[in-house]
Specification:
alpha+beta, 37 helices, protein transport, transport, membrane, Clathrin_app_Ig-like_sf, coated pit
Length: about 850
């Protein structure tokens, strides 16, 4: 009570002690809370900045729900009032932030929200810093309310990064102007997609300036200077990665991070590896990340800090593709022998996923998994050896090699139990494929397996008994030997009921059943249906529950596996059209399932009606849809659309005339989307040129969650238009309708073709008819960078032919467009003129419409 009385004093020291006592010792449920609230209200109304500051500090320190109910409506008024002192504005912003974090439902959104945004232009940088923290938190939950903050944040950031350290003396920290405010502004900008072109240009200049300053010699040798400088740099790189729209910035960010990989400071090495993991997901910076592969491998071998080694493993996993898979898997296996126990299981999962995902030669895959079991058998989960069994059973070409390899591996004196499981299963199914060799005769195979029997656990012994009865069917000559084993007391009277039951049933089956019945009951296992790899599911579970941020993770897994790998195939889809038998090349399904909804109306040109409910009118294309569509011409993965509510991510792969696209819908809010209905729409002409299959998604999308939809694609004939993806849902009682162009373009069905110079120009002359050539001369829209140009041509789908054109500055490419009905050869030549900042693009194909369409698509990329 004495402390409450002190609040009424007009002396600063007494009032301070009273507030301090209340902040530390008074419970929010105290009977005195009403008296305290009255005293605080009086101080807030006094307009004395010192007393107002003490009152605001007390509210923030207590931060109870009762405080929020009492003052959440008053504090915003103090914050935006024109006559409020700067120090009080600071305190009010931070106090409101505290209340919003503890009781967000009690902080009302109102007229003050539009006025608080303008605090970013305040003269007092302390007010700007506090306001930025508040706006960032509010914008994460209510992005639409604070979208005007983007241009103001860019403007303020521009003034900071272009200023000299002497211009902001009070807020310069070791020669770095306002580092904390810069970091907060950069974080605020990460709440929103890339801004409009005018603002984007200014933001790009800011980011380039930050990257340039990172290259400058340090102005101080003190660690505080480098810490502040690097804090701003890493936050700028996070924003570049978040926008994923500026190739030059992405490559520069990667090069900057590469310099930190060998820095003497452990924290910098850790942060560089962590940021490069995300950069590896971008189409534009992936190749730049790969140039550092040797440095990362060296870090894996020599780094003393286990957390840094773990990030190195993550980066190797992220940067892996078909060209580097064998090297990376070999290095990870080598490191696994000495790896810390805490990360061995994760490394095992990643090695298993990469080996499967990028296996071109499945003998290498089998060798890798068996080596994995040998090195880290205790950390090889059931999902790993289950998966290798599925792969071997589903692929006839590797079954004999797998049987021979496991037979040789089992001859080691000490074998891990997981290897015995794999050996028992594979030899039981395919031991006949190596039985012709005297060194692996049926009896030798049986004796080898049985020599491990007494060392194994009950589940493994049960599996071996099943292998034995399979041997009875495969090798009648060892039937008597196996029956003797099954008849022994150790089996028929085993204490474990499962082993006893198997021994009795298998013995009876081998005695009573005829040869035909035995062959039917014990026939070879049928192929497993393709589904999501349990290894990949286990890794995702280990990394945490699925959230919207998983869209970034999906970018990291750069390609859909075409080798029967971890990517899910649709179990049931709404059949849009009947695919050709060749559709199974990508696992698009063994037969086209029946449509589930009513037939589409011909008038609307509707291709896929995902739900049977009649859809509302389709919205026009969202702003920026055309720009995003153009970005996907030369890449397959990334964020297609993003606003304050919804994020749409894509991951796709194409081979010949077939493709598969995964669409990820992310709910960025904390409120459910209801009646969520994505629909694919095509014109009548496009329906005859493009076959699509899709499956419905859950009509309810929880807040902060994402759902996935699979689209299987078959190109029947060349086409010029693109499908439209329309998404309709209800958010907070409001109907939302969004349409975007789906980036399925003709060049996606390109297969690169390598050609020598003589062959190229011979074919070039053959395609010399005026109808076969299309040429376009245009002004460069982006910086004329050689490496980026090469990356775009390769991303476009054609092979980039080196040393073919007499002019080394020119770029030439060759490839074949695959459709169901025909194959169309294509040659291209791109001639840059650096002085005039112009290009001349020439395309020659055997079909004029194809030349015209490819020329249009590629011209937009430069």
């Amino acid at each position: 009570m004495e402390a409450v009385n002190l609040l009424s004093s007009n002396r600063y020291t007494e009032k301070q002690i009273g507030y301090l006592f209340i902040s530390v010792l008074v419970n929010s449920n105290s009977e005195l809370i009403r008296l305290i609230n009255n005293a605080i209200r009086n101080d807030l109304a006094s307009r004395n900045p010192t007393f107002m500051g003490l009152a605001l500090h007390c509210i923030a320190n207590v931060g109870s729900r009762e405080m929020a109910e009492a003052f959440a409506g008053e504090i915003p008024k103090i914050l935006v009032a024109g006559d409020t002192m700067d120090s009080v504005k600071q305190s009010a912003a931070l106090c409101l932030l505290r209340l919003y974090r503890t009781s967000p439902d009690l902080v009302p959104m109102g007229d003050w929200t539009s006025r608080v945004v303008h605090l970013l232009n305040d003269q007092h940088l302390g007010v700007v810093t506090a306001a930025t923290s508040l706006i960032t938190t509010l914008a994460q939950k209510n992005p639409e309310e604070f979208k005007t903050s983007v241009s103001l944040a860019v403007s303020r950031l521009s003034r900071i990064v272009t200023s000299a350290s002497t211009d902001l003396q009070d807020y310069t920290y070791y020669f770095v102007p306002a580092p904390w405010l810069s970091v907060k502004l950069l974080r605020l900008l990460q709440c929103y997609p890339p801004p409009d072109p005018a603002v984007r240009g200014r933001l790009t200049e800011c980011l380039e300036t930050i990257l340039n300053k990172a290259q400058e010699p340090p102005k101080s040798k003190k660690v505080q200077h480098s810490n502040a400088k690097n804090a701003v740099l890493f936050e700028a790189i996070s924003l570049i990665i978040h926008h994923d729209s500026e190739p030059n910035l992405l490559v520069r960010a990667c090069n900057q991070l590469g310099q930190f990989l060998q820095h003497r400071e452990t924290n910098l090495r850790y942060l560089a590896l962590e940021s490069m993991c995300t950069l590896a997901s971008s189409e534009f910076s992936h190749e730049a990340v790969k140039t550092h592969i040797e440095t990362v491998i060296n870090a894996l071998k020599t780094e003393r800090d286990v957390s840094v080694r773990q990030r190195a493993v993550d980066l190797l996993y992220a940067m892996c593709d078909r060209s580097s898979a064998q090297q990376i898997v070999a290095e990870m296996l080598s490191y696994l022998e000495t790896a810390d126990y805490s990360i061995r299981e994760e490394i095992v999962l990643k090695v298993a996923i990469l080996a499967e995902k990028y296996a071109v030669d499945y003998t290498w895959y089998v060798d890798t998994i068996l080596n994995l079991i040998r090195i880290a058998g205790d950390y090889v989960s059931e999902e790993v050896w289950y998966r290798v069994i599925q792969i071997v059973i589903n692929r006839d070409d590797v079954q004999g090699y797998a049987a021979k390899t496991v037979f040789e591996a089992l001859q080691a004196p000490a074998c891990h139990e997981n290897l015995v499981k794999v050996g028992g299963y594979i030899l039981g199914e395919f031991g006949n494929l190596i039985a012709g060799d005297p060194r692996s005769s049926p009896l030798i195979q049986f004796n080898l397996l049985h020599s491990k029997f007494h060392l194994c656990s009950v589940p493994t012994r049960a599996l071996l008994l099943s292998a034995y009865i399979k041997f009875v069917n495969l090798f009648p000559e060892v039937k008597t030997t196996i029956q003797d084993v099954l008849r022994s007391d150790s089996q028929l009277r085993n204490a474990d009921v499962e082993l006893q039951q198997r021994a009795v049933e298998y013995l009876r089956l081998s005695t009573v059943a005829s040869t035909d019945i035995l062959a039917t009951v014990l026939e070879e296992m049928p192929p497993f249906p393709e589904r999501e790899s349990s290894i990949l599911a286990k890794l995702k579970k280990k990394k945490g529950p699925s959230t919207v941020t998983d869209l970034e993770e999906t970018k990291r897994e750069r390609s859909v596996d075409v080798n029967g790998g971890p990517e899910p195939t649709p179990a049931s889809a709404s059949a849009v059209s009947t695919p050709s038998p060749s559709a199974d090349l990508l696992g698009l399904g063994s037969a086209p399932p029946a449509p589930t909804g009513p037939p589409p109306s011909s008038g609307g040109g509707l291709l896929v009606d995902v739900f049977s409910d009649s859809a509302s009118a389709v919205a026009p294309l969202a702003p920026g849809s055309e720009d995003n569509f153009a970005r996907f011409v030369c890449k397959n993965n990334g964020v297609l659309f993003e606003n304050q509510l919804l994020q749409i991510g894509l991951k796709s792969e194409f081979r010949q005339n077939l493709g598969r696209m995964f669409i990820f819908y992310g709910n960025k809010t904390s409120t459910q989307f209801l009646s969520f209905t994505p629909t694919l729409i095509c014109s009548d002409d496009l329906q005859s040129d493009l076959n699509l299959q899709t499956k419905p998604v859950d009509p309810t999308v929880d807040g902060g969650a994402q759902v996935q939809q699979v689209v299987n694609i078959e190109c029947v004939s060349d086409f010029t238009e693109a499908p439209v993806l329309n998404i309709q849902f209800r958010y907070g009682g409001t109907f939302q309708n969004v349409s975007v162009k789906l980036p399925i373009t003709l060049n996606k069905f390109f297969q690169p073709t390598e050609m020598a110079s003589q062959d190229f120009f011979q074919r070039w002359k053959q395609l010399s008819n005026p109808q076969q050539e299309v040429q376009n001369i245009f002004k460069a829209k982006h910086p004329m960078d050689t490496e980026i140009t090469k990356a775009k041509i390769i991303g476009f789908g054609s092979a980039l032919l080196e040393e073919v054109d007499p002019n080394p500055a020119n770029f030439v490419g060759a490839g074949i467009i695959h459709t169901k009905t025909t194959q169309i050869g294509c040659l291209l030549r791109l001639e840059p003129n650096l002085q005039a900042q112009m290009y001349r693009l020439t395309l020659r194909t055997s079909k004029e419409a194809v030349s015209q369409r490819l020329c249009e698509l590629l011209s937009e990329q430069f």
